[in-house]
Structure formats: C-alpha cells, structure tokens
Specification:
By secondary structure, the chain is an alpha/beta fold. The chain has two domains: 261 residues, Rossmann fold; 36 residues, no CATH class. The protein is built from ten helices and ten strands. It has a six-stranded mixed β-sheet with strand order 5-4-3-6-7-10, with helices on both faces. A two-stranded antiparallel ribbon has the order 1-2. The chain has a two-stranded antiparallel ribbon with strand order 8-9. The radius of gyration is 22 Å and the shape is globular. The N terminus is likely disordered.
C-alpha cells in the first residue's frame, strides 16, 4: 500500500508538470471519498457476492428455513436446504463507455467520462480494501481496452494509469460512436469466471437497438455474471433540455452532424421522447433483475456512489 501510494504521488507530480491536472492525487481523492463511504456502511455492500449453489441436503429440524428449496418440496414433499460454496474474493469488471458523447459537456467542471472514471476509481479503492480482483474495459464502437480481473498491486497500478490517460485523451476530431451491444456480447464471452460487471454509460445508442442491448445484458446474466448499470447523464442539459431562449447550433459529438434549433419550439417534444427512452431502459433493467442507478453528474460522483452503496447494502 505504501509503495503504491508513493508511485501514484510520483505519477501525479509528472502529470501536473506535463499538463493541467485538475484532480490532483487520484488515489488520495479516492481514499477520502471511500473513508466517507465506510462511515455510513455497516458492512461491505459487495460481501457475499461470490456465493454459488453447490448441492441439496436434507433439512434438519430446528434449522433456519431461509435456504429451504420450496420448489423441490412441492415436487418431493421432502424438505431440502440449499448448500452453497463461498469463494473468498469478488471478481469485478469495470466497463466504461468511452464514446465521444461521454465527453459532454465539454466546458463543464466535470463531463460524463470524468464522472465515470472517478466513480470507478473510488469503487476500486473500496474493493482493494477487501483484496478483491478487478479488471477494466473501455468500450466505444469497439473494445479499446480489456484486462482480466487480478488483485495484484502491479495490476492495480496499471488500471489506475489507464484511467488517468483517459482523462486527457479527448480529441474532438476523432469521432467514436457507441456500440455497446457488440462490446457487451464480446465481454460476456471473454470473461470466463463469474464476475460482477459495473457498467458506466450514457446509453446514447440507436434507440431502435434497445432490445439488442438487453439481449447482450441477458447474455451476461446467462453466463452467471451480475450486472450493475450506472446511467451517466447531465440531467439539466440532456434530460430537461435547459437551454436559453435563443437559437443554438447543436453538434453530434459522435457523428459530427449539425442542427440549428430554437429550444422553446422543440423542448416539450424532446423531453417527452428522451424521458420515455431512458425510462424504458430503467424498466427493462428491473424486469431482467439488473441493478440500475441513474447517475446525474451535477450531483457529484461521491454523492451518487454513497446513495447507491447504502441502497445496495439494504437490499443485500
């Protein structure tokens, strides 16, 4: 831990010399936020994830009825309990959407990608304290980066360095579209062991492919992976369309397509359409028993994460 901290401090020093590093020491920031999480959590919100069904055994009178298999009782009229195998470590795969739309808004203190990176960093710090294994994937129109889940310090240093690079990687001339569907199918196949997938995305893909998106997520679930979706967006601009009453020229960050608009003329139609689309994503997630969290970047990543972790702890 001491060596990792020194390496990160050296890395941050180099970054501050090379360019404008507005977040300072990333590890220190993560540690401060996680300390705040821990004060509000009685136990790890991820404890007990890697508990898998092993076999049935006869129920003994006086035992808790919590693990009785009632479906089996209905068929056999005998009481059996489910026996589980518990693995010591969690395997967590962080998936960050790095398509061009995630760099919105360009002139804000924090864009959607920065929010996602800092959120991932803090969750990594939380999992590191549990000595859990972590991996990282960047996806846009292709899988840009994919690492297997490991818990070694050199691996964690590598993940941190890749997250840092992405904070400064934006080039407006390089348009990267969203293709979550194919990327998630591929990740489901190349991740062989049961894992927890934590996905950060604005889900600004083709709305006609929403069923394809949830087929890809179901593919993950079929392969025994647990999935958590963080829907990252700017509520003010993307959901409520809070633009002033003057003409605007909107530019699609992924395709470069331009459109001149008068916000007051399309605001209500836009809000109705986008809210219906986002609501459909949320409801389909609930139907597939996928954890879903709306992450408004205006609230700050620390508040969003704390709200989510407290909620998860109550459920689990």
């Amino acid at each position: 831990m001491y060596k990792l901290r020194n390496i990160l401090i050296n890395c941050m020093s180099k970054l501050s010399l090379e360019g404008n590093f507005k977040y300072g020491n990333l590890e220190l920031l993560a540690k401060q936020v996680v300390e705040g999480f821990i004060t509000g959590l009685h136990k790890s919100p991820f404890h007990g994830f890697s508990v898998e069904f092993a076999e049935h055994r006869l129920y003994n009178t006086g035992e808790s009825t919590k693990h009785i298999d009632w479906k089996l009782f209905a068929r056999t009229e005998k009481l059996f309990t489910k026996k589980y195998e518990e693995e010591t470590n969690l395997r967590c795969q962080f998936v960050v959407d790095t398509s061009s739309s995630m760099y919105f808004p360009e002139d804000a203190n924090q864009n959607k990608l920065e929010f996602s990176i800092l959120s991932s960093l803090c969750l990594m710090e939380l999992l590191k304290r549990q000595r859990d294994a972590m991996g990282l994937s960047f996806v846009s129109d292709e899988i840009e980066l994919h690492t297997k889940s490991k818990s070694s310090l050199p691996h964690l240093r590598y993940l941190l360095s890749e997250l840092e690079k992405k904070l400064y990687a934006y080039n407006p001339k390089q348009k990267k579209e969203t293709n979550l569907v194919d990327a998630l199918h591929d990740l489901a196949e190349i991740t062989p062991r049961r894992s927890l997938f934590v996905i950060f995305s604005d889900f600004l893909d083709n709305p006609d492919r929403i069923n394809d998106l949830f087929q890809a997520l179901e593919h993950m679930r079929h392969n025994k992976h647990e999935v958590i979706l963080f829907h990252v967006l700017d509520n003010k601009m993307e959901l409520n369309f809070e633009l002033g009453n003057r003409p605007y020229r909107l530019v699609d960050m992924e395709s470069g397509e331009e459109m001149k608009i008068q916000p007051s003329q399309i605001r209500e139609v836009y809000k109705k359409s986008i809210q219906a689309y986002f609501k459909e994503i949320e409801m389909k997630s609930i139907d597939q028993q996928i954890e879903f969290m709306t992450a408004d970047i205006n609230e700050g990543f620390n508040e969003v994460l704390l709200t989510y972790l407290l909620k998860r702890q109550k459920i689990h």
